[in-house]
Structure formats: C-alpha cells, structure tokens
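Worked Example 4.2. Consider the chain below.
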Amino acid sequence: MKSIFSLLFLSLSLSAFSQQSPSKEIQIKLAVLAAPEDQRSEATVYGYQNGEIVMLRRGSNQTVCLGDDPSREGLSVSCYHSSAQPFMERGWALRKEGKNAQEIFNTREAEAKAGKLQLPDPGSVLHVLVADDQDINWTTGEAQNTYTRSVVYIPWATAESTGLPLKPAGPGLPWIMDPGTHRAHIMINPSRN
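Applying the procedure from the previous section yields the following structure tokens:
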C-alpha cells in the first residue's frame, strides 16, 4: 500500500491541467469537507488557479486545507495542522521542479536530518477526504459517498518506540508507516461502508 503522503504529493502535480479549476467558492466548500466540522469556517484554504497552488482564503485557526487537483479524476482534498505548512510547501516546490515522489521524500529526509526543514508537530493530524467523480457536483460543491482517512505525524518514531504494528492488525486499526523517517506517521483507515 502506498503511503498517504505519496498519494497526496502525487496528486499535487503541477503539470498542465486538462480540466479547469472550479470557482474559488466551490474549491473552498469542497476543501474544508476534510476538516473537522468545528474547524471549517476559520480554516486557511489553498486551491488551484492556472495550474498553481494559491491561497484562496486566509483563516484564523490551526487548520489548513488543500483543494482538489482538477487534473485528476474524482475528489481528493486534505486538511492538516498548520505546523505541517513548511513541510507541505517544500513538497509543492519540489513537485514544481519536476521531482517525483521518491525524490521529494529523499530531499525532505536529508533536509530534515540537517535541521533545514521544519517538520509537523508530533501528534498533529492530516485528514484526506476522497470521492468518486460521479459523487461530486462540481457546480454546487456537494459531495456524497465520501471516505476520510487520517494520519498522525510522529517524525522519527518506529514500531519499537511506539508499539504500533507495521500493518493494520484488523479493519480500521492504527499502524505506523514510514517508521524511523521524517515522515513517520500513524495511519488510520476506517472501514469503508
């Protein structure tokens, strides 16, 4: 199974767009669906404009959301703790330079070890909400049959330091991915009904 971060950064490709971005309002409405309900109205939101990631709304709480990449099928939006913003922005910049997911991982790993890259606060959360294309109304910003998975950042943690298994012990149970690296995180994938 690919890391949620690999999938997230693959979805951040800044190549030519085959589909126009929805309006700013629709991008914001869909992006915040990944946030806990009580954090949505005050979240900072980034989205896409002319193939670039741009800030759509400056918020006032700790939550940052990223809208859907219109060049990819379906809906995939994410929200995360503001302490992850330098980490995210570095990934966006490396992707814009044409780096692939492994090159981005390697660069950020080296920069984190050298103390040049600020990592997300341990224990901070990222949520990713997805839906199939037929379940999204791109005009109204309504989505149905969505699925949300989450990760909890624990940079440099290992299975031994946490007691977490390297794969889920059962449906919906947490496990550690990318242990011992700057990108170590607890995966939480609820059962999909």
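The beta strands are 44-49, 52-57, 63-66, 75-81, 125-131, 136-137, 142-143, 147-153, 175-177, 185-188. The longest helix spans residues 101-113. Compare this with Example 4.1 before moving on.
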